[in-house]
Write a structure and sequence with these properties.
Blueprint lengths: L3 E5 L3 H21 L4 E5 L3 H17 L6 E5 L1 E3 L9 H13 L15 H11 L15 E5 L14 H5 L5 E4 L9 E4 L1 H6 L3 E5 L5 H8 L6 H8 L3 E5 L5
Parallel strand pairs: 1-9, 2-3, 2-5, 5-8, 8-9
Antiparallel strand pairs: 4-7, 6-7
Helix pairs in contact: 1-2, 2-3, 7-8
């Protein structure tokens, strides 16, 4: 598909290293232009490698993160110190090592009621400029991809619900992967972002990635790709 940039790697370490380097380039470019960089993070095993690699590279590059504001593509409905929390992973592997100010971190409140968490998320994202349709335009959304082709916490069992909802954030009450209750950014926010980078890494994902890259694919990732002019996919998944 013409609207996909597919970048393949031999393994997860090489993938994480390259994406971290490119992200630091984006942050440095925004800083030089006097702009704020708004990014949405995701969780998962590849995110852990990516966070660690970003910190390692920045020990040499010394790029300031003072103009970076962090949002989340999704969060589990758990407290921020829970082992399942996407915030906890980012906090331990990225924010603390980089001394990121709490004022730059706009986490999804997984410990609150879903209604309150969404209300607070909608309020937080008001700092991001909106497009002509009133949708926030993040500079970058970083996504993983699950074995079923899901991104953020937008799963196959909710395709219709996603397509028919214009809210910026959704409560996901029935995730097929534990924990079942989650908050996710909606596909309209992902589609509106200036850039979307997908890190598709790990075994057992070839079938889902192939379905997602198909012009007529029906996975959540396929839906994102179909709505965008360009999506970059960084992958160590073999496509024979």
């Amino acid at each position: 598909m013409a609207n996909i940039e597919l970048i393949q790697f031999s393994g997860a370490d090489e993938l994480a290293k390259t994406v971290a380097e490119k992200w630091l380039d984006e942050i440095e470019s925004a800083k030089r232009a006097g702009k704020t960089h708004h990014v949405a993070l995701s969780g998962g095993r590849i995110a852990q490698k990516f966070f660690a690699e970003t910190v390692a590279q920045n020990e040499k590059r010394k790029i300031s993160f003072e103009r970076v504001h962090f949002f989340w593509a999704d969060e589990r409905c758990v407290p921020p110190d829970d082992s399942e929390s996407n915030f906890r992973t980012a906090n331990e592997l990225l924010f603390q090592p980089l001394n990121v100010s709490a004022s730059q971190i706009h986490r999804l409140m997984g410990e609150a009621s879903p209604e309150m968490a969404i209300k607070l998320a909608e309020s937080d994202i008001h700092i991001v400029a909106r497009n002509n349709n009133g949708v926030p335009v993040l500079d970058l959304v970083l996504l993983g991809m699950g074995e079923d082709g899901h991104v953020a916490s937008l799963f196959q069992n909710a395709i219709e619900r996603i397509a028919n909802c214009n809210d910026f954030f959704l409560f996901v009450p029935d995730s097929p992967k534990p924990p079942p209750h989650r908050i996710s950014v909606n596909v309209n926010v992902i589609a509106a972002a200036a850039q979307v980078w997908v890190m598709a890494s790990g075994d057992g994902k070839e079938f889902a990635l192939r379905r997602s890259l198909d012009r007529n694919g029906n996975t959540p990732l396929a839906r994102v790709i179909q709505l965008r002019a360009e999506t970059k996919i960084f992958t160590d998944v073999g496509l024979k």
